Amino acid sequence: MPLDPDTWIAPRLPERRDASGVVGTLYGSRLYEQARHRPIKERVEAFLIEPGPVHMEIGFDHGMLILEQARLHPEIRWFGVEIREVKVEAAARHAPPNTLLLRADARAVLAGLVPPGRLDAVYILFPSPSEKASHILVTPALVELLERALRPGGLVHLRSDVPGMVPVV
Q1: In this model, does residue 6 exceed pLDDT 60?
Q2: What are the tens digits of pLDDT across the range 33-66?
Q3: Which residue has the higher pLDDT, 87 or 136?
Q4: Range 14-33 burial, b when 16+ CB lie within 10 A, else e
Q5: For residues 111 and 139, what is the distance between their CA atoms, to the nearest angstrom?
Q6: pLDDT at position 112, please?
Q7: Residue 103 carries which DSSP code?
Q8: What is the chain's Cα-based Rg?
Q9: CB contact at 8 A, 40 and 102
Q10: Sign of the alpha-carbon torsion through 148, 153, 159, 162
């Protein structure tokens, strides 16, 4: 049964047990330390080591924004992270060379793959509400990860049409 965005109330977030861990992700921030995920880690590192600005879209869905922006701004490297594999596969077929689309939890990517100060902008557009606390994206922990990943003066563009989705942090 879909959630009603007008009556949705965010669930109570779990306490963080470990300051270096990321609540809500499989293996948390240590996911990319596992040998089986080394190819993903190397692919992201190779993409991010290139010079120039990097913009990230978290939860790109069909990829309309990130793909269009990548075409319009080839001087920017566009890094998209989406949890749903089918969406990533569909969008990746249309991605220009300055784009990397990854199926992953953005919290684990920010914690384990993105070097400090590497991102120039992050876009989070209309994150889905959830009844599960571990699925809530916009939390104080995410803000900490974004603060680490963004260069000084970097931009976070966050939009939601769900009352209570974007807490004051």
Answers
A1: yes
A2: 777 778 888 999 999 999 999 999 999 999 999 9
A3: 87
A4: eeeeeeeebbbbeebbbbbe
A5: 14
A6: 87
A7: E
A8: 16
A9: yes
A10: positive
